[in-house]
């Protein structure tokens, strides 16, 4: 059997962790986490990272291995996963990867475009532009320097606009010229089996999970990280809303309400992204037997 990476995508709160553990136990293999928020050891509660009892059942990789102060990127994740896989395949010839970070998952499955290094001074220049003129200043600069990418980029995401600007100016070439969308050939087989639920059930699970995070101490965890609020790792649902609470801009009840709402929105965004991938076979989370049977049939085939 050719070495096989079983990829399990699914929206936040759908129950991927337990299903991936059950599958890994069934196959006798290990798990690679593909949830970029769970990389950080200080963000345990707000990211719903696997608990110690779950981690004891199956060995996980890329869980709480960084500090929020550490630099990490999609390209580094791709490099690290591809470097790790041969040793994991040497056992059973199969590895499970699960998580909700769409771009990270795509980087492992499809590869990334090779983007050159950039000049830190250029990045600082555009960060200063953002501080002075906000996202409109960045949009105008990108429209002038790379109109092709301007027409495609998420114009509400200042970090992606910043990235395009710093690469364009550092290299003297439009950022869009580096985006070839070339799929890299992998020396292992990839099986994609997604997990989903009826929307009402999913939303109810998300709401309950947020309530559980609050009870577990999310507010205190966010307070302990407020000095790092400007870092990219903490620009995420759960922490952003708590920081607004600490600033006095919203009430505690409103912060909890917004975490639930923004988590539901993120789940919709994840599903929209993955619904464009016709390689994914989708299964209802309540039908795990069917899910595992299908995986077995794919491995045997």
Describe the structure in your own words.
- The protein has 301 residues and is an alpha/beta fold.
- The protein has two domains: 4-112 and 183-300, 3-Layer(aba) Sandwich (Rossmann fold); 120-178, Histone, subunit A (Orthogonal Bundle).
- Helix content is 53%, strand content 9%.
- It has twelve helices and six strands.
- The chain has helices spanning 16-27, 52-57, 74-92, 102-110, 120-145, 147-150, 158-171, 199-216, 218-224, 239-247, 252-274, 288-300; strands at 4-8, 31-33, 60-61, 94-98, 189-196, 280-284.
- A six-stranded parallel β-sheet has the order 3-2-4-1-5-6.
- Helix 2 (52-57) links the parallel strand 2 and strand 3 (60-61).
- Helix 3 crosses helix 4 (102-110), helix 8 packs across helix 11 (252-274) and helix 9 crosses helix 10 (239-247).
- The N and C termini lie close together (9 Å).
Which shape, going by the Cα principal axes?
A: globular
- SSE string, helix = H, strand = E? EHEHEHEHHHHEHHHHEH
CATH fold name of the largest domain: Rossmann fold
N-to-C terminal Cα separation, in Å? Answer: 9 Å
| Number of strand elements | 6
Q: List low-pLDDT spans.
A: none
What is the radius of gyration?
20 Å
Query: Per CATH, which architecture of the largest domain?
Result: 3-Layer(aba) Sandwich
Compute the number of structural domains.
Answer: 2
Broad structural category: alpha/beta
Q: Classify the helix fraction into a percent range.
A: 40-55%
Could you give a short account of the major beta sheet? 6 strands, parallel
- CATH class placement of the largest domain: Alpha Beta
Mean pLDDT: 93
How many helical stretches?
12
DSSP strand content = 5-15%
């Amino acid at each position: 059997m050719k070495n096989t990476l079983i990829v399990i995508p699914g929206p936040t709160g759908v129950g991927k962790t337990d299903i991936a553990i059950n599958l890994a136990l069934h196959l006798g293999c290990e798990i690679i986490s593909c949830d970029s928020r769970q990389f950080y050891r200080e963000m345990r509660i707000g990211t719903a990272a696997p608990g110690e009892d779950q981690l004891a059942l199956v060995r996980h990789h890329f869980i709480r291995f960084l500090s929020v102060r550490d630099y990490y990127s999609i390209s580094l994740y791709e490099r690290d996963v591809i470097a790790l896989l041969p040793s994991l395949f040497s056992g059973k010839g199969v590895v499970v990867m699960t998580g909700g970070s769409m771009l990270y998952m795509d980087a492992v499955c499809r590869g990334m475009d090779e983007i050159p290094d950039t000049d830190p001074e250029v990045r600082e220049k555009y960060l200063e532009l953002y501080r002075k003129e906000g996202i409109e200043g960045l949009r105008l600069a990108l429209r002038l320097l790379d109109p092709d990418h301007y027409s495609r980029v998420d114009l509400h995401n200042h970090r992606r606009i910043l990235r395009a600007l710093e690469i364009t100016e550092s290299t003297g070439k439009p950022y869009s010229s580096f985006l070839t969308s070339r799929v890299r050939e992998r020396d292992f087989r990839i099986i994609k089996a997604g997990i989903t639920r009826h929307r009402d059930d999913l939303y109810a699970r998300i709401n309950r999970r947020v309530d559980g995070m609050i009870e577990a101490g999310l507010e205190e965890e966010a307070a302990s990280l407020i000095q790092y609020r400007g870092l990219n790792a903490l620009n995420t649902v759960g922490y952003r809303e708590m920081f607004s609470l600490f600033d006095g801009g919203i009430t505690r009840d409103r912060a909890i309400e917004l975490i639930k709402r923004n988590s539901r929105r993120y789940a919709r965004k994840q599903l929209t992204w993955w619904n464009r991938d016709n390689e994914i076979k989708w299964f209802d989370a309540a039908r795990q037997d069917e899910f595992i049977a299908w995986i077995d049939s794919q491995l045997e085939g």
